[in-house]
Design brief:
Helix 5 packs parallel to helix 7 and helix 8 packs across helix 11. The radius of gyration is 20 Å and the shape is elongated. The strands form two sheets. Strands 4-3-2-5-6-9-7 form a seven-stranded mixed beta sheet, sandwiched between helices. Strands 1-8 form a two-stranded antiparallel sheet. It is built from eleven helices and nine strands. By secondary structure, it is an alpha/beta fold.
Length: about 250
């Protein structure tokens, strides 16, 4: 079967550089056993996962890619589906590492799903649009956002390397960044998680305001104890700062 033609509506840009594919899969923890790959396309990452004897399963939405994979990887466990619609606890009732050259148009949604399933997903190795990758990693400054805080709450994150446009078919208009997320030791929050997420979203949606102004719709239990935080802006707060802020918000 000839190569699959990339489909614009699926955000497909097929990596064609074997060295980069090797470098991405080589980031996986050597103790990893089970790996789920999102959007394998024609299997440029998949071949290295199989070669390294990971228990590999893939989720692919594109029927043409599924046909290609079945022909070229006959023993591969392939699930034709939209990853975002899967019930991970039912489909994959075990802990696993997640890997993929994630479609730019749904990459943030994939991470929000990781956040919701963090006790099942011990590790994520992903390729993102470079700007998004930098935002997820950012701990302070203008690039910091909602996704940065939420993911850093439960994962240690590092920016691994940049990937240039010319190693894709078709080449995207932007550079890509590969990042690695490792589940940290925080089992759960010491505050109400729903309230925590609401506060993170609220202050970043008004990121130019100081915290004391952006959280005006909420009442504080004792603002004296967090008066230093209240003079800052969202991009200046660490994960622990947000947890403390949530503790004092009614």
């Amino acid at each position: 079967m000839k190569n699959v033609k990339a489909k614009k509506h699926l955000g497909q840009h097929f990596l064609n550089d074997l060295r980069i594919a090797f470098d991405i899969t080589n980031l996986l923890d050597k103790n990893t056993k089970d790996v789920i790959e999102i959007g394998p396309g024609m299997g440029i990452l998949t071949q290295f996962l199989i070669k390294n004897n990971y228990n590999t399963q893939v989720v692919e939405i594109d029927e043409e890619c599924v046909t290609y994979l079945k022909l070229n990887f006959p023993n591969l466990n392939i699930h034709q589906s939209d990853f975002l619609k899967l019930n991970l606890k039912e489909r994959y009732p075990f802990n696993f590492s997640l890997i993929g050259n994630f479609p730019y148009n749904v990459s943030s949604q994939i991470l929000f799903k990781v956040f919701e399933n963090r006790n099942q997903i011990s590790e994520v190795i992903g390729m993102f649009q470079k700007e998004v990758a930098e935002r997820i990693v950012c701990k302070k400054g203008k690039k910091r956002g909602i996704l940065s805080v939420l993911m850093q709450t439960f994962y240690d994150i590092e920016y691994c390397f940049t990937v240039h446009e010319n190693v894709f078919t078709p080449p995207p208009k932007v550079k890509s960044g590969v990042i690695r997320l490792i589940r940290n030791k925080r089992k759960k929050l010491s505050v109400d998680e729903i309230k925590f997420k609401k506060i993170v979203k609220l202050v970043f949606n008004q990121r130019r305001k100081k915290i004391k102004n952006s959280i005006k719709p909420w009442k504080l239990k004792n603002d004296k104890k967090i008066e230093d935080l209240l003079t800052l802006r969202a991009e200046q707060l660490s994960v622990d700062d947000f947890i403390q802020l949530t503790h004092y918000v009614r």
